[in-house]
Amino acid sequence: MPGPDKDTLKARPIRSFGRTGGRPLSPRQQRLVETGLEAFRIPAPEGAFDPRALFPGKDEVWLEIGFGGGEHLVHQAATNRQTGFIGCEPFIEGVAKALAGIEDNQLTNVRLWPDDARDLLAAMPQGSIARVFILFPDPWPKRRQQKRRLIQPAFLAALHRVLAPGAHVRFATDVASYADEALLAFLSHGGFDWTAQSADDWRRPPADHVTTRYESKKLGDCDPIWYDLART
Ligand SMILES: C[S@@+](CC[C@H](N)C(=O)[O-])C[C@H]1O[C@@H](n2cnc3c(N)ncnc32)[C@H](O)[C@@H]1O
Predict the structure, then answer these.
(1) CA-based, 20 to 30 A from 119: which of 20, 57, 88, 132?
(2) 94 lines ligand 1 (CB under 6 A)
(3) Full domain range(s) for residue 134
């Protein structure tokens, strides 16, 4: 089969995630992916798609990019049932774990995009998302890998476009160079205000946060740093 042409390859952003598969799924996870995912999966958009149409009667749509094992996504969805949630994550074991959380909590306000969030952002209309979580994105700590980091000018332009004015973005990392680079990128964009008033605002986790398994491993080189950015 012929591969993608040169223009397609050039247009494709550098991959920001690591493995998408790995250990074999447990029997429950296998069942959830094989028979449960279909009900929660967002179909590949053909042209523009409005995320608000996925959640009739809900107040707003919030987005989590790179939900990992889904602990935070499930917690937020269970505590904010009047909000529709879109979770993006290409790692299949993470998708299976999120499906287990959805089942255990009988959630009806979550839809999943088991793929690169950037493809979904491109299809969403302007101003359709009210809140975004990007928590401990892949750190790509080696200098030669840093171009794989999710927070890049092109990504922030795409994110800004889909956010409603006044929408908030929560970003967290425990890698000092990523914290510096991400803040600089958000502020250089010009369409995000950093809301911090005191050091506690970036040193302490927000009250509605739950610690995930990944975060508790403390794989980074500093304590977690939290940014809240408001879309202007
Ligand atoms: C280091 S993990 C952290 C997971 C989770 N946020 C947490 O705090 O436990 C980062 C996750 O982001 C996902 N990711 C990276 N790039 C992504 C993209 N472009 N779209 C969706 N997910 C992405 C990866 O697959 C990975 O599971």
Answers:
(1) 57
(2) yes
(3) 35-42+50-231
CATH number for the domain harbouring residue 199: 3.40.50.150
134 Cα: distance to centroid of ligand 1 (angstroms): 8
Taking the alpha carbons at both ends of the chain, their separation in whole angstroms is 46
Q: Evaluate whether residue 144 is within a structural domain.
A: yes
The per-residue pLDDT string of the chain (232 residues; one tens digit each, 9 = 90 and over) reads 444 455 544 566 899 999 899 889 999 999 999 999 999 999 998 888 899 999 999 999 999 999 999 999 999 999 999 999 999 999 999 999 999 999 999 999 999 999 999 999 999 999 999 999 999 999 999 999 999 999 999 999 999 999 999 999 999 999 999 999 999 999 999 999 999 999 999 999 999 999 999 999 999 999 999 999 999 9
Query: Could you give the number of structural domains in the chain?
Result: 1
**CA distances for 102 relative to 44, 95, 172, angstroms:** 21, 10, 24
Q: What is the pTM of this model?
A: 0.95
Residue 226 in contact with ligand 1 by CB distance below 6 A: no
Pairing of strands 60-65, 129-135: parallel
